[in-house]
Automatic annotation (TrEMBL):
Residues 19-53 form a coiled coil. The lineage of its organism: Bacteria, Bacillati, Cyanobacteriota, Cyanophyceae, Oscillatoriophycideae. Keywords: Coiled coil, Methyltransferase, Transferase. It comes from the Bacteria. The keyword Glycoprotein does not apply. This is Methyltransferase domain-containing protein. InterPro entries: SAM-dependent_MTases_sf. The keyword Transferase applies. It comes from Microcystis wesenbergii NRERC-220. One of its GO terms (biological process) is methylation. One of its GO terms (molecular function) is methyltransferase activity.
Length: 324
């Protein structure tokens, strides 16, 4: 303390007493805050334990599956997705459009992977979601969005018609047929894009990252717009197939492999295949904290382009920018 401050306290003893009192009150408040934080953590642990037990019980007691979707374990949501798929397939067969074809892959199978991915409180995926909407980016025919809407979520879809499988005719037809309130937006993610809403609870970003010319910009923009994001993308351990002479192990190197124009699946919209270290690095640099992370497929011998060498990373990430 400076000499002038010492003199002030010497001249006015009452200030010394007040200062000591304030210091004691400050220390007491610090102790109280620490105690509150400990109580909060204990309540979170108890809540997670209750949710875990509820999820186990809901597998064997059908009545529990009709409670609020926010209280459903991801395994129950997966089963509901299977049931919804049957209904949706019947609806698509009934509509039978003759001017376009439906997206050929079952996007609702993502819940099979999410059951493996999500741990702890994250298994109650919808509990993470606030009143703000979910956005499904790269929606195909919107199957995932329509399913989440059936669970009571407010959902938007974002895709780019020129690169969508059927120019977004499928999602628009299903919206009408299902009398859905899902909002449909046509956005080019290879531009300096903005999302329709300022903020979202959750972004679903499955199988899109390797189709983008500028994945860094896209991930950073999403981190500034959403609290959570579910991401899947192809990753690679090696630079080429197993019998190539110039094969290099890339798994520990934070890089992205730039595909040749038709190198992967004869699809010129495939651009960047990350190593696992590269994906983790770009997520960290663009403002995301990894909550859960797994890889599936050829996890031992993957390469960027061959069908047999396909490895996929799935992760749940939380934004460090987002303010709820």
């Amino acid at each position: 303390m400076k000499i002038k401050k010492y003199l002030k306290f010497w001249k006015y003893p009452r200030l010394v007493d007040e200062r000591e009192t304030l210091i004691e009150e400050r220390d007491s408040l610090k102790d109280h805050l620490k105690s509150l934080n400990q109580e909060k953590q204990e309540m979170i642990r108890e809540k997670n334990a209750l949710y875990e037990r509820l999820g186990q019980l809901s597998l064997t007691i059908p009545e529990l599956q009709e409670i609020s979707p926010k209280l459903l374990d991801i395994s129950v949501i997966k089963n509901k997705a299977r049931q919804f798929r049957v209904q949706l397939d019947a609806e698509k067969e009934k509509l039978a459009p003759d001017n376009f074809g439906w997206y050929p892959y079952n996007t609702l199978t993502c819940f099979e992977i999410l059951e493996l991915l999500l741990t702890g409180k994250n298994r109650f995926l919808l509990e993470l979601i606030s009143e703000k909407p979910i956005v499904d980016i790269g929606c195909a025919d919107g199957d995932l969005a329509f399913f989440l809407e059936s669970l009571g979520c407010k959902v938007q879809v974002v895709d780019y018609a020129p690169t969508n499988f059927n120019l977004m005719q499928g999602v628009k037809l299903l919206k009408t047929a299902l009398s859905s309130s899902v909002e449909i937006h046509d956005v080019n993610l290879d531009s300096q894009f903005l999302l329709p809403e300022k903020s979202y609870s959750l972004v679903i970003f499955l199988g899109i990252l390797y189709h983008l010319k500028n994945p860094y910009y896209a991930l950073e923009t999403l981190a500034k717009s959403a609290n959570y994001c579910l991401i899947s993308t192809r990753v690679t351990k090696f630079n080429t197939v197993s019998n190539a002479a110039n094969r290099v192990d890339l798994s520990a190197i934070p890089l992205a492999y730039l595909l040749d124009e038709l190198e992967a699946n004869n699809d010129s919209t495939n651009y960047w295949i990350f190593s696992n270290a590269g994906l983790r690095r770009i997520l960290q640099r663009t403002g995301w904290e990894i909550c859960d992370y797994i890889t599936v497929g050829n996890t031992e011998n993957s390469d960027p382009a061959s069908r047999d060498g396909d490895e996929r990373a799935y992760c749940l990430v939380k934004s460090r920018f987002y303010q709820d």
